[in-house]
């Protein structure tokens, strides 16, 4: 395949962006692991994450993570085949359900992360 | 096709696809809100967030359900990432990424991150049901 193939069509470019989302998401999860480990330093050694650089890093990762969610959940209609009362569920209903689950999970996790704070 | 010549189910392939699909699905459902709340809103102090204070962070991390959730999130996601990044390299012409050593590096990396996560979760905040 010629080099730069992924820049020739918008569809190819978006495919590469979709696959690349794995890298920033992996980096952010490694940071989360570091954040968890920092709790082991004790109250005196604990530094809450508040730097501007970290916020910028998170905003970039958030953009990639949101794109991953959109593309991955949209594919659910193609991948998942479910029957209810012997009738296949339309792909659109499956995609709608997945996006609904995304919204629900976001609300629940957001509520836990904020609600258990002081 | 006779039973003797029938191919065995590709259990290894099935396993990697299971990890890939579930890791991608779990990351899609929950990762954006973690990044938004813990990476943006908390550090900017727009809302209070558990990991901004030592006592609330340790308290939440001590919950065994939270430990299991974090383990599932990180472990499954990394198997997904390993699979995607390996095939991205193949798409960019690096055919060595299909080789067994490359698989060992990528999926071995996911296993290593999983083991480190288990170690961090077991050694950071004591398990507490309270």
Number of helices of chain B: 4
- The beta-strand count of chain B equals 0
Shape of chain B: elongated
Structural class by SSE content of chain B: mainly alpha
**Span of the ends, CA to CA of chain A:** 55 Å
Strand content of chain A: under 5%
Estimate the global geometry of chain A from the Cα principal axes: flat
Kindly report the average pLDDT value of chain A: 94
Radius of gyration of chain A: 19 Å
Explain what you see.
- The complex is a heterodimer of chains A (118) and B (130).
- Chain A has 118 residues and is mainly α.
- In chain A, 71% of the residues lie in helices and 3% in strands.
- Chain A has six helices and two strands, in the order αααααββα.
- In chain A, a hairpin with a 2-residue loop joins strand 1 (83-84) and strand 2.
- In chain A, helix 4 packs antiparallel against helix 6.
- Chain A is flat, with a radius of gyration of 19 Å.
- The mean pLDDT of chain A is 94.
- Chain B has a domain at 13-26 and 54-124.
- Helices cover 71% and strands 0% of the residues of chain B.
- Chain B has helices at 11-41, 54-61, 64-91, 100-124.
- Chain B is elongated.
- The model of chain B has no long low-confidence stretch (mean pLDDT 91).
- Chains A and B meet through helix 1, helix 2, helix 4 and helix 6 of A and helix 1, helix 2, helix 3 and helix 4 of B.
What's the short version?
With 118 residues, chain A is mainly alpha-helical. Chain A contains 6 helices and 2 strands. Chain A is 71% helix and 3% strand.
Keyword list:
heterodimer, A: 118 residues, mainly alpha, two-stranded antiparallel ribbon, 6 helices, 3% strand, B: 130 residues
Secondary-structure blueprint:
The complex is a heterodimer of chains A (118) and B (130).
Chain A: H1 10-20, H2 22-38, H3 42-45, H4 52-74, H5 76-79, E1 83-84, E2 87-88, H6 91-115
Helix pairs in contact in A: 1-4, 2-4, 4-6
Chain B: H1 11-41, H2 54-61, H3 64-91, H4 100-124
Helix pairs in contact in B: 1-3, 3-4
